[in-house]
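Summary for the funding panel

The consortium committed to producing paired sequence-structure records for every protein in the target list. Below we show the first two records in order, beginning with the earlier of the two.
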Amino acid sequence: MSEPPSYNLLDQPWILAVDLDGREQALSLLQVVDGAPRLRRLAGELPTQDVAILRLILAVLHRALQVTGDEEQVRETWGQWWEAGALPAEHVVGYLETFRDKFDLLSTSQPFFQVADLHTASGKTSGLGKVIADLPAGHKFFTNRAGYGAESLSLAEAARWLVHCQAFDPSGIKTGAVGDPRVKGGRGYPIGTGWTGNLGVVVVEGANLAQALLLNLVLARPSPEDDLPPWEVGEWTAAPTDQVAPRGPAQAMTWQQRRVRLFPRDGRIRDVLISNGDQIRVRNQHHVETMTGWRRSAAQEKKHGEPQTYMPREHASDRAVWRGLQSLVAAPPVARGARDGEQALEAENLHWVASLRTAGLLPRELPVTIHAVGAVYGTQSAFIETLISDRIAFRAEVLSDAALQDAAVRAATVAEAGARTLGRLGQDLAVAEGRDGVPDRDRGTEHGLQMLDPRFRGWVRDLSGAQMAPQEEAWRQLVREQILQLGDEMYAAASPAAIRGRVRADRNGRPQRVDAALAHLWFTRKLRIDIPLVTDDLQADRTESDQADATTEKEHSDE
């Protein structure tokens, strides 16, 4: 009698990664743990898939590497791992082997991240389109996946999308499973997206995957005894548990928002059933969730009658991550507690890295990258509309130095001010032609931001405490020169109608002439005011001195 099929994620190659030489590999979970120093990063189908798998590995580490002692002892242990350049793989492997059977994707009793006998009264399933996030519903012509690739999945693909589903699955009506008391008329009504879909995920990346795992392994918030990830729990059923909040970081990173069952046939996954799982209370999870910033919500405080309510801070889909540095790196840290009046809290993994730097465990010049990842959902969060993935790199000292953080925020503000001034020039030139000019303003602003984007990333990457003042001045000079050049190009391309200009009523109703030359004059004057330089002050001093000398000379000649 043949053995039932098995596909154990500890041994089978299902995680996609890129090594230090740029080669893509498919690896098992044990291979990733052992080979993390030789891997650059995870490289799955989507950035959200990589985040979901990274969080799965971090949950394993939180449970496998229980560090005891005071804060200094915990950091010292972490520092030993960092100095070795690798995870303590023997401890992690030993832990995983303890739960080996729970990592079998095809187990007939306790399959990984699934419910073995999940079924519906009608026998209906959900269809693979519900689990494959890069197969948009109703838009089959806007994907590279078609035919056989949309009708079935390899076991490795299915494992990746299963982890992604638990993290980012959209909300909306789900197929109602037998055994779920919430089902009405065969339907499971919306309980929200997967937990990670609520977050503006912040990942701290280093030179390789081992560094990334260590940098995001926040040991200041250890996993408590009852912080049980799915593989440490007994058999799962269709019914929800009585939990509404994770008890620690491991549960937060593997929260079972869905009940899922994969249907294999002939060595491939042919169908899937996705039903509602455990609904999570989104608010005030900043004590267990380490990979997102938080914002205070007055509306939620009023709704729930709570004195302080914090909601996960999502990333803005319409702007680069550097334009939101104020909320990313300059907010008070979660680890200090949510104090009265704080409107934003820093992601705890960023504060953890800052504390390691302050303790001398990380060199100040260590290059680190913040990777911002998130999903933007459509109407009623029923589908994923777009994904966010953006990186910004700088020295580790920026995370631990408030002065450098302020300098970075000021530099971003300078860039935005310059771009807005360029946009205003576009609007004034359009007005000189007789048009409204608002679309021209928006295009001009966006053009300025696009041109400054790579320059800001390069500037902030090299920002250091030793050179902060001259670096800031150099940045203001660069922005002013770049925006002035773009403005000159815009002025040179002005139409004959804009050059002739027109008379319009100003905000006080008085007639005002607007033409290309005046628009350019206003632009250069505004740019000088918005982005002042030290050399402007020196020039002003020289001008005043020259005027004084001229007055004295005239007085002498009059005498």
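The next record, for a separate protein in the list, is shown here:
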Amino acid sequence: MIKYSFILLSEETDGFLSRLQELGVVDVTRSAKPIDDHSAAMLDSVAAAKRVIGKLEVIDYSKDENKRAIELAYGRAVAEKDMVAGAQKALATLAELEAAKAASDKEVKARLPWGEFEKARIEQLETLGYAVRYYVTPKKKFSEEWAELYPLQVVADDNNNVWFVTISEKGAEYTFPIDPVQAPEGSWKDAQKVSDNLASEIAAAKGLVLRYKESINRMTEDYEQSLVDLDMYLAKAGTETAAENRLTIIEGFAPAENEDKLCLAFDAAGVLYIKEEAKEEDNPPIKLKNNRFVKMFESITAMYGMPNYGEYDPTPVVSVFFLLFFAMCMGDAGYGLALILIGLAIKKEWVKIGMFEGLGGLITTLGVATAVVGFFLGTAFGVSLPDVEWIPEGARNCMLTGEIMGYPTQMVLAIGIGVFHLCLAMIIKAVGYTQRLGFKENISTWGWLVLILGGIIVGALALLGVMDSGITKIAVIAIGVISALGIFIFNTPGRNPLVNIGAGLWDTYNMVTGIMGDVLSYIRLYALGLAGGMLGAAFNDLGNMVLGDGGVMGWTFFVIILLLGHVINLLMSCLGAFVHPLRLNFVEYFKNAGYEGKGKTYNPLKK
């Protein structure tokens, strides 16, 4: 990044910022949040517009039971001049009416068993000295003897419940085996009229909403322009003034490849500016540069945080290991083929799913990896491939089955990949910190790297018989001495050695307990793949049990169980295969790689 500092007359500020917007490559230092009442109001307006547009986009009354009434209301509806405010009001009114309609329908349902009556007639009985009580009871609890003992009239009976009333003189002693319920407010027809009126009002409100929906393109354009205006306001507010507010100082950053183009534009505009290479202390914005494959995974890095300026970009490593971890957690070649088809459908826009828009290529890539890894793990749609007769012997030999030292091969593989992943993280941390801070400040980091990586290499060579016992002993002693000096004696050069030893012991405790937990975390790669495979096999067994000897019904339920079961398993597996690789990269890898991820995303001022 190149840092630019501009010095302008205050009256030239607006014009120059507009010019920067047209260039579209300079990230002007500005606030990311509202800084005053005006910008807060602008942000509220933008947010309201976004919410309204989102609600209008999903509205579809083509299958509404009152479609004709809605169309008539749409023809009569008139939109307000302020489209967003008007749509907001119309949507709020519609929500209130629908809530009132739901309550009204509930009241109709409650009154319906009591039938049609005039409440005034009932109240006349009250004035004549009679009390009317209302009861509802399950039919199995209703006793015919009650009618012989009390003045009782059954009003409704639906074979489940009985609705009835009793009459008694006011003030007279009265008891009944069950408690009365609240009297209906009126006839059900009265409630139905209210519900019908609300239905008409709802149709009118929906017609008005459709009127606003036809202007959604205009609202979207206004929304995007409001974002530009807000960005410009924040950029202007982030400038500094000097010389009694007569001068404005603007700071911005742009990629180095745009330097010649920008200098020509600034020279032509007659702007006084200073340029210099950005430094880490300037906290410049971050623009990642990756190839087509790695670029698909930049959103994953952004979820955690962009790298600091001068810090390495973790995306190339994250891309490879996230892909591998996802495939291992899925662990099923059949589900990989399903993901490939889903990814291609999204990429070719055969189907449109809002939350997955633009992710078709990534889903396809994850599907390919899952299909390949699933084959080597020996599972497809819950079927154990090594047990399938038509699988060639050569293909069976490529599948990871059996045990290593008494443990499942796939579990040992997961642990091995985890150890490699953590060692790579430590190497990157040592090299990256040395480049940024110098070797002297990272002797302890190198000490741990020598101990762990050197110990693994020497141990592996000894187990494979490449190194004899004498050389192994010497190598172990050398590694121990070198790492001990770095960890306990020279971890902070120039400090009291006793203090260094104490700090080294504390670091050792944290390192040992942390590393063990980190390594064991990678067992999830084996466990999730195993769980998905077992669940898929369980659905297959259920399908075979239902199939029995065949027949139309047997095959029908067989297909339903397999489709439904494997769709559920695929969705659950995808969820786990997304979350757990994120954790392994964000927690285990980033922690051991020393990744901070506190950088700012490159966000140029543009139209």
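Regarding this second record: The radius of gyration is 37 Å. The first strand starts at residue 2 and ends at 9.
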